[in-house]
Amino acid sequence: MAGADIVLSPLESLSGPRSAILTFYYGDTRIAFQRLDRAGKRHAVLVRVNPDCTIKALAPKELSNTDVITAVKKRSRWIYKQITEFQQQQLHLTPRSFVSGETHYYLGKQYVLKVVEDLQQPQSVKLVRGTLQVTVNDKKSVDIKILLNDWYKQRAKDTFHRRVSELLHRTPWVSEPPVMRIQTMKTQWGSCSPHGRLTLNPHLVKAFRDGIDYVILHELCHIAEHNHSDRFYRLLTQVMPSWRSVKSRLDTNAHKYLSTL
What we know:
By secondary structure, this protein is of the alpha/beta class. The protein has 2 domains: 3-91, no CATH class; 143-258, Metalloproteases ("zincins"), catalytic domain (Zincin-like, 2-Layer Sandwich), CATH 3.30.2010. It has 6 helices and 12 strands. The protein has helices at residues 65-73, 76-91, 144-167, 209-224, 230-239, 243-258; strands at 3-8, 20-26, 29-37, 46-49, 55-59, 103-106, 109-117, 124-128, 131-136, 180-182, 190-192, 198-200. The protein has a 5-stranded mixed sheet with strand order 1-2-3-5-4, covered by helices on one side. A hairpin with a 2-residue loop joins strand 2 (20-26) and strand 3 (29-37). It is globular, with a radius of gyration of 21 Å.
């Protein structure tokens, strides 16, 4: 497929503003992406395709929207491939009913959901011999999804704090454990504020440990380099030499971990 003419969203002009929805064609496929400013002195345009098929392009402020589209179009084949793969993954997702027999992930492993009705026991969620057991007083009156999400959030909080503590020896620029919050996000595993506060997605606790460590180390590196410059990636490679393969595995399996939302 060859690229067609460059097309700008009617919401934006060629000269700005610097957060725009821009479009172009790859063959007959119209591809839209969000153009955002890229911090630092980097001149390259960084393109990201999220599991929900949204696309973001981080570009230097001085580049016009036309130049950004030209740069993104050079990655048309890769973008199209990523979108196609994510769409195929979504086709195989089965909506969750939160009933016995479903499989759910925790720390990279699959567990069979078992819902137990017991009037004598407090409502709870726990791992029991390879199953994720939810005990309720009345199956008809309890939202199993809420109980599971609460359990995941608590497990995420405990797991992330423990992993941060164990990983700090790799990041000497972080003198003490950073402030952390748990927040569900649709397209991000984590983020780091300018003041060094980490925000992590509770559904990350469903991923394998190296994937969790990668996200945490990525955000800890942002405390030293709050952008995606060459220095940032050198730092990330220093603390986790295998981060590229780990990230690829995490991206490939993201639909499994997010399908239980």
